[in-house]
Amino acid sequence: MIKAILFDLDGTLADTALDLGGALNRLLAEEGRSPVPYEKIRPIASHGARGLVELGFGLHRDDPGFDAMRLRFLNHYEDGFRHETVLFDGINPMLETLATRGLRWGIVTNKPMRFTDRLVPVLGFSVPPAIVVSGDTVGVPKPDPRPMQHACTEIGIDPSQCWYVGDAERDIVAGRAVGMKTVLASYGYIAETDRPEEWGADHNIAHPLELLALLPTLAV
Question: 20 to 30 Å CA-CA from 90: which of 61, 64, 71, 113?
Answer without folding.
Answer: 113
